[in-house]
Every structure is written in C-alpha cells, then in structure tokens.
Amino acid sequence: MMKCRPLAARLVAGALSLALASSLAPRDNLRAREMAAGDSPSSSDIPSSSDIKVTAPIAGKTPAANAPIPALLAPLAPRSLILAGTLAGTRLVAVGERGHILLSDDNGHSWRQVPAPANATLTGVRFIDAKQGWAVGHDATILHTTDGGESWTLQNFAPDWEQPLMDVLFDDADHGIAVGAYGLFLETADGGKTWTKRRITDDDLHLNAIFATGGDTRMVVGEAGGVYTSPDKGRTWTKRALPYEGSLFSGVAVDDRAVVVFGLQGHAFRSTDGGQNWQTIDTGTKAGLMGGVATPDGHVVLVGALGTVLSSSDGGASFKLTYRPDRLALADAVRGADGTLVLLGDEGPKLVGALP
C-alpha cells in the first residue's frame, strides 16, 4: 500500500492552519494510530545496523517531474505560517510554509525573506555558528547555508520517498542527523554531501524532533510516546519508557540533566536523570504543545495551539498558563541575541519582549 504523507510540521491535524491541509495528501489519522498502538517495550538497545548510503538527490539529478520549484519571494512572507526558528550568531532565522525563510537582524523587530531553492514546507532549522546552518522539511528537503542564511543550496530533495523531515541537528560542520515521518532517520558525516538512512526504531512511527541534552547525549521524540536517547551523539539509541502513548512533538533541554518533552492535548513530562524516569507535568491545558525554548537560568517557555503559552521559572517543574488574545496557533519559540522572546506560528513571528 502506498504511504500517504502525514500532517508534518509537529502539528496536531489542523491545529495551526488549514493552509497546510491543501498541500498534504490524506494519511491514516494520527490520533487513530495512537489509539490503536499496542504496548511498547519499556526500553531496547537498537543497533545501528542495515545502514543504507544515499547520495543526496539534488536538483539536476532529480527527474524533471520531481524537480524542486524555488520558493516565491512574497511581500507577505513574514505574515505566513512559520514553524521553526533558531539563532545564528546575533541573527534570527525562521522557516515555514512554501519554503519561506526569514531573517531578522534586530532581535525580531523586523523580518525579510531570502530565496530558497525549493518551495516545500520547512519544519526545522539549526545553526552550528553564525554562518553555517541547515533547514529541513517536506519532500525530505534538506537545505544548507554557509553565509548566515543569506543563500541556501539543496542537499536533499526526494518527494518520491513521501516522508517529510521534521527536524535536524548538527554537532559540527560534518556530523548531522535529520529525523522525520515513518521512522525516517538520516545521518551525514560529510556536512550533508551524502546521507545514510538508518533505523533507530523497529516500527514506522514518526520521529518529530531531535535535540541535544548535554555533552554527547541526544534525544529524539515522536509518535506513540516515543522517547529515544543516545549517549554517543547518535551512534547507539535506547528507547525510554514514558507514562504516555500519545504523540510527542518536541522537547527542550533545561540543563545537562533536566529535559521537558511535550505534545498532544497538553501532555508534558519532565526528567532529571537524562530520560530514565519521568514526572507528569500539570499544564492546565488540552491544547497541543508544539515547541519551546529554555534559557540558561532555568526559564522554560512552551507554545501551542489556541495561542497557548506556558512559562516556567523553575526549570520546567511547574508552569503558568496564559493564552494570547489573538488565539493564533503557535509552533515554536526562540530567543533573540538580547534575550527577547519571539513566538512563531500562524501569521508569522510575534515579538513578545522579555520572558513571561
């Protein structure tokens, strides 16, 4: 049976915008999958075997029918659906629907769009310094920049896979990992010139986010309460037990030990031992939680559907719930170089100012 593309972008179906719906084929309903999910083993060491080396099918090597179409430069791009952001030196970089890439050099006060070689929805972006970064998204798109986001090259574009990428993480200029739908896990050791397909799960559940939790430890979260940790920058992985079988959309590392993961219907969990044990967080909301950010002093902000904003001043142990007056759905949060908070989601970036 042919796979249908899922509602990617770490979103509950329809939670952020109907704009995504028109670009996605139907899939087996995410909530139905969760309800049908059986018991999972509490933990399992999953070897990095059966690796498949793939050379990035970039434009020019891709059949004409599947060749990427460059993103259109649109005056209203800063008001479009923006799904992820990060800091590149002192510059903010944000990505979203239709391949939109936005830059801000004044801590989120103003934004400008830059060209992108593909118009696929972008769902994740990370930089290793002020110049070099990667963005990923639908059609297994991987973009790379070496000039702080001013220009981007296409490293991977594979619509025939029907597996959107959800997130990306690089340790340095060479080693990186991208994760996505149906267990898609890509790894590179040469800065993205080639990618290796791997399996870290024995099923096809979506992998929605990857992030560092201190030192060489990495964490991936996804469907059916999936939490996977690696002590060696992704070489080996262990599945962790979580008191929850629904979807997790993302997570934030508070410090070298404490981490908060979150997802569907306001569910959130905190671990202070690297993911071995988890405590349920009372968020006070049933809204899907999509993204967040943590500061070095222990402040944590989570955002989600219905303009949900959860703020914590105690490392994620407890949260204060507020809703934005506009009730526009939020997908991510990022801090500017001056510490100000910027929320990303429906109708583009929103400058908040100081952490709530």
TrEMBL record:
Signal peptide as annotated in the record: 1-21
Keyword set includes Signal: yes
Source domain of life: Bacteria
GO cellular component assignments: photosystem II
Photosynthesis system II assembly factor Ycf48/Hcf136-like domain: residues covered: 109-157, 162-316
A GO biological process held by the record: photosynthesis
Transmembrane segments: none
Entry keywords, A to Z: Photosynthesis, Photosystem II, Signal
Cited PANTHER family: PHOTOSYSTEM II STABILITY/ASSEMBLY FACTOR HCF136, CHLOROPLASTIC, PHOTOSYSTEM II STABILITY_ASSEMBLY FACTOR HCF136, CHLOROPLASTIC
Protein name: Photosystem II stability/assembly factor-like uncharacterized protein
